[in-house]
Amino acid sequence: MKAVANALRRPVRILRANQKSWISAALAFALLAPASVFAQENDTGLRVELNAIDTLGENCRLTFVLQNKMADDIDQLVAETVLFSDEGGVVLLTLFDFAAVPAGRSRVRQFQVPNTSCDRLGQVLMNGIDTCTISGAASQACAQNLEVSSRVRIALGG
C-alpha cells in the first residue's frame, strides 16, 4: 500500500513516442511480422499490442503496435498508463501520447520509461483513455472499442 501511495504522489509525466526510432521499428515489424498479427474474428476496434521491450541502460523502452480498425481517423490518442512491478506494486502512473492513428492503418509507437529496467516490470495497464480526438472533437470511441494484447512476457491490460 505504501508503494501505491508513493507512486501516486509523483507528478504524472507525459511520455511522447520516440520519433527518431519509430521508423526503424516499423520497418522491422513490417518485414518480420506475419500478415495475421491482428487476425481476429472481430474486424473493428482500436487494437493496441505491447510488441517489444528493450532495456537501454537504466531505461525501459516499450514498443506498441496500434491498429485503428474504426471508420474514422484518430487525431490524438493519449492513454493513462500504469506500470506495475513483477510483484504487483505500482512503479509509475503516467500518460502515453500515441499521437494520431489513421483509420485502417497500423502505427508503431515507442516510449522510454526513465530509471526503470524492463526486468522490473510485470504488467502495463491502460487505466483509461485520457484523450481521444476524432474529427476534431472529443470522443468515447477509443475507450469503447479498445482491445489490448501482448507479445512479450509483460502483460498488457485495458
Roughly what fraction of the amino acids lie in strands? over 45%
Given as residue ranges, the uncertain stretches (5+ residues, pLDDT < 50) are: 1-12, 19-41
Write down the overall geometry. elongated
Distance between the termini: 22 Å
Order of helices and strands: HEHEEEEEEEHEE
> What's the total number of strands?
10
Tell me the structural class: mainly beta
Number of domains: 1
**Largest sheet at a glance?**
6 strands, mixed
Compute the average pLDDT. Answer: 82
Brief rundown of the structure:
The protein has helices at residues 2-9, 22-32, 141-144, and strands at 14-16, 46-56, 59-68, 74-85, 90-101, 106-113, 121-134, 137-138, 146-150, 155-157. It has 158 residues and is mainly β. It has one domain.
Characterization of this structure:
- A hairpin with a 2-residue loop joins β2 and β3.
- Strands 1, 4, 5, 7, 8 and 10 form a six-stranded mixed β-sheet that branches.
- The protein has one domain.
- The protein is built from three helices and ten strands.
- 23% of the residues are buried.
- The longest helix is centred in the N-terminal third of the chain and has 11 residues, at 22-32.
- It has helices at 2-9, 22-32, 141-144, and strands spanning 14-16, 46-56, 59-68, 74-85, 90-101, 106-113, 121-134, 137-138, 146-150, 155-157.
- The two termini are 22 Å apart.
- With 158 residues, the protein is mostly beta strands.
